[in-house]
């Protein structure tokens, strides 16, 4: 397993808060960009990134590897740390996207949920990750898989 520590992190250029601390499970996914922001990046064709938040632990599929880490929530504040992953290799573009996703996760500072979408923001208030629910469910976001829609650098 490899760790993606802070020493490798680069600094990236009606809404209600999701209570990740109280919820037992949250599955999210990053998919094709639906954002109108010019900084939004499309995922590599055919790739899929997911995230699941459970009791202070974060995990999912990063495109090639399974990953894990820790998270803390206080109100809208969100801290993600100690990201690690399995060591599978893959095509260069997927490997670069995966590394950028790990860096971006650790840049998270706040979050908000609108309907079935979760937005994660950096310290400057810029949306850096946009997730959507992978399965249609009501606003009760306690369980289910989410898929990342945009990865903003």
Précis, in short:
Helix content is 9%, strand content 41%. The protein is mainly beta and 153 residues long.
* Average of per-residue pLDDT values: 74
Weakly predicted, low-confidence segments? 1-26, 31-38, 137-142
The tally of beta strands, per DSSP, is: 11
What share of the residues does DSSP label as strand, in percent? 35-45%
DSSP summary: helix tally:
1
Distance between the termini: 25 Å
Q: Which structural class best describes the helix and strand composition?
A: mainly beta
Any idea what the shape is?
globular
Helix content: under 10%
Element order, helices and strands? EEEEEEEHEEEE
Rg over CA atoms, rounded to whole Å, is 14 Å
Q: What's the main sheet like?
A: 11 strands, antiparallel
Describe the structure.
The protein has 153 residues and is mainly β. The protein is 9% helix and 41% strand. The chain contains 1 helix and 11 strands, in the order βββββββαββββ. Strand 8 (110-114) and strand 9 (117-121) form a beta hairpin. It is globular and about 40 Å long.
How are the elements arranged and paired?
Elements: E1 2-4, E2 26-30, E3 40-41, E4 49-54, E5 57-61, E6 66-74, E7 77-85, H1 92-105, E8 110-114, E9 117-121, E10 127-133, E11 146-152
Antiparallel strand pairs: 1-7, 2-4, 2-11, 3-11, 4-5, 4-11, 5-6, 6-7, 8-9, 9-10, 10-11
Give me some keywords for this one.
153 residues; mainly beta; eleven-stranded antiparallel β-sheet; 11 strands; 41% strand
């Amino acid at each position: 397993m490899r760790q993606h520590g802070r020493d490798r992190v680069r600094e990236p250029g009606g809404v209600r808060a999701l209570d990740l601390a109280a919820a037992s499970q949250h599955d999210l996914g990053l998919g094709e960009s639906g954002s109108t922001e010019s900084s939004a990046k499309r995922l590599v064709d055919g790739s899929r990134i997911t995230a699941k938040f459970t009791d202070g632990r974060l995990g999912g599929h990063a495109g090639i590897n399974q990953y894990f880490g820790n998270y803390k929530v206080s109100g809208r504040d969100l801290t993600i740390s100690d990201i690690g992953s399995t060591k599978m290799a893959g095509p260069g573009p997927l490997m670069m996207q995966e590394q950028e996703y790990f860096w971006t996760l650790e840049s998270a500072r706040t979050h908000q949920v609108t309907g079935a979408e979760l937005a994660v923001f950096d310290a400057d208030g810029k949306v850096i990750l946009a997730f959507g629910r992978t399965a249609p469910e009501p606003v009760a976001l306690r369980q289910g898989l989410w898929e990342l829609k945009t990865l903003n650098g």
